[in-house]
Amino acid sequence: MNTASDLISSDEWAEVLARGFGSVQLVIREGAGFPRTAWSVFSKMGLRAAYSNFPVGFEDGVAGSMMPAITADLRASGVDLARFSFPRTVDALSELERFRTIDLLETRVDSLEDWSEQDLPRTLKKKLEKSRRAGVQIRDALHDEGALLHRIYSETVVRRRGVVRYTPGYFDALCKLSRDDGRLSVGVVVRRDGTPCGFIVIAHSETSSYYLHGGYYSHSANLRPGYIAMAWGIDRAKNYHSRQFNMLTSPLDQPALVAYKESFGGKSYARSHYELPVSKMGALVHAVLCTSRRTRLIFR
Predict the structure, then answer these.
(1) Distance separating alpha carbons of residues 237 and 266, to the nearest angstrom
(2) Which entry of 155, 169, 205, 216 is 20 to 30 Å from 163 by CA?
(3) Residues 6 or more apart in contact with residue 11 via CB below 8 angstroms
(4) Averaged confidence pLDDT in the chain
């Protein structure tokens, strides 16, 4: 079983994205003082957009001052748009500021070794206890449960008025990889009779474990499958000896999701997202998208 430190920048993760979206991985500026940065390149209608360490973005170890050199490499590789994010605490070059598209709240448990379910708020512990008394459990996903996860994911996204972006092939690849690679945990929440009602996906590294996906069927909401799943995910991350549990960013229109994450001991910080054109086509598309974003802000 593979237990190397970083899944998100690995060839195995690139294969998951390739099977789910047809993306191609580029590894930029590895060595000579630069950390390994993996970019996933997605192609649509002739446009090639590269995303850094998809879907988690850059961490503190990659400074904004490296972006000009990285951008040159992306341009040489035929990329049109570079999309990346930094924690707001990272110093980015002032010339990047005009390419900042949005700031979102990222929630994380910073000292994972000190986390304990016993220290959670009383109301949250009651929800967990009630769910467990009702027979709700969580187990590892089977290799052929990708279609199940996609159904639960799709229902959850539609219920929250979001857009279904992840494909059945992606979830199929997640389930298969999780059976062989210790850096990926996929859990299926089940009712007392064994019927699935929710799921969670966690990617692990020595520095951070990332909550990538989670969802549940609406008809099982009273059983609190999302709470059981998150507690399981944090425990998995702690057992992996990650130093931090990162629940990633939340949409601006879902403050309840931020509150849910923070109830598990997380604290929220701003993460800045950027869209940088690196070709003439990219500059044109970037201009159109910027106009569209401004229009939505005016008329929303």
Answers:
(1) 14
(2) 205
(3) 25
(4) 91
Q: What are phi and psi of 194, to 5 degrees?
A: 90, 0
Q: Rounded to the nearest 10 degrees, how much is the dihedral formed by the CA atoms of 32, 36, 37, 38?
A: 130
Show the CA angle centred on residue 60, arms to residues 59 and 64, nearest 5°.
Answer: 95
Contact 112, 210 (CB under 8 A): no
pLDDT over 60 at 272, yes or no: yes
Q: Could you check whether the bond before residue 55 is cis, i.e. omega within 30 degrees of 0? A: yes
- Compute the distance between CA of residue 175 and CA of residue 143 in angstroms, rounded to an integer: 5
Which letter, b or e, does each residue of 36-56 get, where b requires 16 or more Cβ atoms within 10 Å of its Cβ?
A: ebbbbbbeeeeebbbbbbbbb
pLDDT at 38: 86
Beta-strand relationship, 267-277 and 244-249: unpaired
**What is the domain partition of the chain in residue ranges?**
11-104+270-299, 108-269
* The model scores a pTM over 0.90: yes
pLDDT at 3: 39
Residue 169 token pair: 């092939």
d(CA 52, CA 82): 8
The three-class DSSP label of residue 79 is coil
- Closest CA relative to residue 274, chosen from 76, 70, 73, 110: 70
Phi, psi of 41 (to 5 degrees): -100, 120
Superfamily (CATH H level) for 108-269 = Gcn5-related N-acetyltransferase (GNAT) (3.40.630.30)
Question: What is the DSSP pairing of strand 208-216 with strand 81-87?
Answer: unpaired
What is the distance between the alpha carbons of residues 247 and 108, in angstroms, rounded to a whole number?
5
Give the number of C-alpha atoms closer than 13 A to the C-alpha of residue 291, restricted to the C-beta side: 6
Distances (CA, A) of 171 to 3, 116, 122, 201: 21, 30, 34, 10
